[in-house]
Amino acid sequence: GFLSTGDQAAKGNYGLLDQIQALRWVSENIAFFGGDPLRITVFGSGIGASCVSLLTLSHHSEGLFQRAIIQSGSALSSWAVNYQPVKYTSMLADKVGCNVLDTVDMVDCLRQKSAKELVEQDIQPARYHVAFGPVIDGDVIPDDPEILMEQGEFLNYDIMLGVNQGEGLKFVEGVVDPEDGVSGSDFDYSVSNFVDNLYGYPEGKDTLRETIKFMYTDWADRDNPETRRKTLVALFTDHQWVEPSVVTADLHARYGSPTYFYAFYHHCQSLMKPAWSDAAHGDEPCNFSKNDVMLSAVVMTYWTNFAKTGDPNKPVPQDTKFIHTKANRFEEVAWSKYNPRDQLYLHIGLKPRVRDHYRATKVAFWKHLVPHLYNLHDMFHYTSTTTKVPPPDTTQNSHIPRRPNGKIWTTKRPAISPAYNSENGKEKWSPEQEAGTLLESPRDYSTELSVTIAVGASLLFLNVLAFAALYYRKDKRRQDTHRQPSPQRGTTNDIAHAPDEEMPSLQVSQGHHECEAVPPHDTLRLAALPDYTLTLRRSPDDIPLMTPN
């Protein structure tokens, strides 16, 4: 349902269109089953959550549902949208013998293959990305999800969203064997692999890699393998789930749209999860102990309340009169709305409470510092005027994501596949094109060099003039002395008739080029020309701008 050639041959997003069609049927028919077509709630977890998040941004689903519950996912996660559909479609076509240049012929060839043959092909995406998923087609998803959120495309929906404490477990298990903790070398490898797969400027990777290691090292217990394992899980959790979800909540609540945020902290015992793990991805449903039964009732009450009214606190209060026998600790807890200033969220665990600013330091690291490091990399590593040339857009409806002015591409998203040539349908993809073409022109420093020489020559000329003036006064005084063998001392202010006083020497001030008096000496001593260094700073106009694609 998500294969795409990036053009009209196979635009993609067929899976989302299926979901939209299902919602349309529900909206038109739910009244016949006693339901309310004006109180339809859609919810999903993981990839399903990212699809729900995308549906709130699509004009095709407008009016088909009113509320969304987004569990452990967001349209802003790196695996939510496929930014390289042409690449993976070509890989699949090559494996089944359909890799022809014309996309229409390629799609026709793929349609002749059985579903079993297609799904059996092992197409591995870059880590932390997706091979076949929703794409930005200019229609179902008209633009980059973050741009659509900033434009307020999803403000008409009530949204509940949240994350689990240890979502990143799946990525730790996929990179290293964490049963006995994580060694220092495995930790370094995991961070390096993470940066290599998510960040596209090779010259800045070392700086970013070391910064991430610093942020996710417990310096009080840095040599403990179990501590390293815990911080590695936190790294993946924060980047892949927490930061995207918090940004989504901030953008949705910015104008007062009803938003509720939760953090799920209860870890249920399961043979599928290691005993050391926190509440991992998908841990909300699990086998029940008494505590599990109590929390299950809590979650069902909150979720169904939200579907009914848009407020998880009503109409049904949290109490102990349900199927559980464990006292319900949530009876005295009121789940407050989320807003960007206070960032209140519900801690769902055995000790429930409303807290604020979930993982705020780490969220700020990924949201603000990492893009700032990207800018610093540009400023200090490029001494040329750099212009990023966007890939050619020859399709009628461009689906290339663009950032608004002043924004930069965050490193959560890979480069975008360029559009096909609409005239011949031939693929124009190459890694160089995906990364964009950087045209660098060497800067002309002739002006700065001329200024430096002029300033130096001026300072030298001033010193020569001062030396000549002093020499002239000294020589004149000597001649006057020879003409008057027995001079009479005059007033103290008569410098020309003061044989025992020496003419003050002059020294050029380095700071302001002014003449200052210095103590007298037996012989005239000219201060040496100081070292002058002209610091050349680039004016704001010289700083290379990241032009949007």
UniProtKB/TrEMBL annotation:
Transmembrane intervals: 449-472
Keyword Ion transport annotated: no
Start-end of Polar residues biased regions: 387-399, 484-494
Keywords: Cell adhesion, Cell membrane, Disulfide bond, Glycoprotein, Membrane, Transmembrane, Transmembrane helix
Record GO cellular component, one term: plasma membrane
Region (Disordered): 387-437, 476-522
Any one Gene Ontology BP term: cell adhesion
Subcellular location: Cell membrane
Pfam families associated with the record: COesterase
Any GO molecular function: neurexin family protein binding
InterPro entries: AB_hydrolase_fold (IPR029058), CarbesteraseB (IPR002018), Neuroligin/BSAL (IPR051093), Nlgn (IPR000460)
Keyword Glycoprotein: yes
Domain Carboxylesterase type B, chain residue ranges per copy: 1-366
Domain of life from the UniProt record: Eukaryota
UniProt main location, coarse: membrane
Family classification: Belongs to the type-B carboxylesterase/lipase family.
Name of the protein described by the UniProt record: Neuroligin-3
Source organism: Antrostomus carolinensis
